Amino acid sequence: MNTPWVESPFFKEILATKQLSEKEQKMALDYNENGFIVIPNLISETVIDEIKSDMDNKGYNPEFQMDNQRDHVRIQDLWMYSESTKGVACNTEIAAILAMLYDREPIPFQTLNFRVGSQQRAHSDTIHFSSIPAKFMCGVWVALEDITPENGAVFYYPKSQNLPEYNFSHFKSTPSDTAYSDYIEYEDFIEKIVEAYQFEKKPFYAKKGDALIWSSNIIHGGSKVLNEQASRYSMVTHYYFKDCIYYTPMLSNMVTNELFLRNNLVDIKTGEKVVQSFNGNSISSFQTAQDKYILNDRIQLNTEVMPFPEPIPPVRKNKIERLLHQFGLKK
After folding, report:
1. Tens digit of pLDDT for each residue in 100-134?
2. Structurally, how many domains does the chain consist of?
3. Domain containing residue 237: CATH number
4. Is residue 28 within 8 Å of residue 8, measured between CB atoms?
5. Are 159 and 193 in contact (CB under 8 A)?
6. What are the CA-CA distances from residue 146 to residues 60, 117, 231, 256 (Å)?
7. Is residue 314 part of a domain?
8. In sequence order, which ranges of the chain are alpha helices (DSSP H)?
9. Is residue 73 classed exposed, middle or buried when 0-12, 13-18 and 19+ CB atoms within 10 A define those classes?
10. Alpha-carbon dihedral angle through residues 289, 295, 296, 302, given to the nearest 10 degrees
């Protein structure tokens, strides 16, 4: 099937054919069941201290020149200026686990570094990062200090990864385009979904160096910060997997199937642009708006110069004009 084997309806059947260690088998079982796994004490204190230093001296320092998006809460793609951040995004142990879970090469494409709790409302990463085939995306969150109820733990809803990949086409009554100004409507909808399914909310009180790997579709967010003076240093890396089409449903029109393709993805490992394909097969894309495309190999754009049509003979022209008058199409 065109789905990660750990999320396949044939998971147990496939698992029986895998030659996994006992540790790997447990990770696969937990990931399939709950949509996440925890890797304790994965990142060393030395690396963590280097990342925090780069965050303070570069990312959160207004005098340090960088073009990336940043504010008082988070820094996007600090890996471009921080070798320690890039090292975690390209960590070989993480890459090996992801390759085992997805049977494809992982592609780290974005990092987010946080100095305080995000307090972000519940959401699924698939609204921002989706793929064809579906679900070939995941997040890896790393605690850069101990997490407590005071500083706003990450929370998640186990088993919610089995829900559909919800987007605006599931609840908006019109086929209009959407933008990030509409995002609150999505957040409201997801809160109603969580309530309807009565998922159990789980905070992640991680220890410094722990890593949380979550499925693309698991619903998660950031808990309320109880102590506004408390820091919550952390970072997350988002991964796609090789040989997929990558797009953002949030900025796509999912009714008309016009996709906001992520054509400028860069593999953090290599610094090279990621080639989009469907299982290694290229598909033509055609632009329908400034930021939207349709995928179609049947459309053939005719670039030949067509000859002007022959002039209509006078007799036939008079007959055509009489018919237009008869049907009221010409006065």
Report:
1. 999 999 999 999 999 999 999 999 999 999 999 99
2. 1
3. 2.60.120.620
4. no
5. no
6. 21, 12, 10, 45
7. no
8. 11-15, 22-34, 45-54, 83-89, 92-102, 183-197, 314-326
9. middle
10. 30
Average pLDDT on 72-85 reads 97
For residues 58-78, average pLDDT:
96
Report helix angle 22-34 to 92-102, nearest 10: 70
Distance from C-alpha of 285 to C-alpha of 13, rounded to nearest angstrom: 36
Average pLDDT, the chain: 92
CB 31 within 8 A of CB 213: yes
CA distance 144 to 55: 11
325 within some domain? no
- Of 142, 151, 154, which is closest to residue 113 (Cα–Cα)? 142
Sign (positive/negative) of CA torsion 138, 142, 147, 152? negative
Residue 227 lies in a domain: yes
Q: Residue 106 domain-assigned? A: yes
Q: Give the span between the Cα atoms of 211 and 61, in whole angstroms.
A: 26
Plot region of 305 (φ>0 → left; ψ -120 to 50 → alpha; else → beta): beta
Q: What is the pLDDT of residues 141-180, one digit of tens each?
A: 999 999 999 999 999 999 999 999 999 999 999 999 999 9
Structural domain of 83: 5-295
Q: Count the neighbouring beta carbons within 10 Å of the beta carbon of residue 272.
A: 9
For residues 154 and 203, is the Cβ–Cβ distance under 8 A? yes
Decide if 113 contacts 78 (C-beta within 8 A): yes
**φ, ψ of residue 253 in degrees (nearest 5):** -105, 100
Q: For position 307, what pLDDT does the model report?
A: 52
Q: How far apart are CA 259 and CA 142, in angstroms?
A: 31
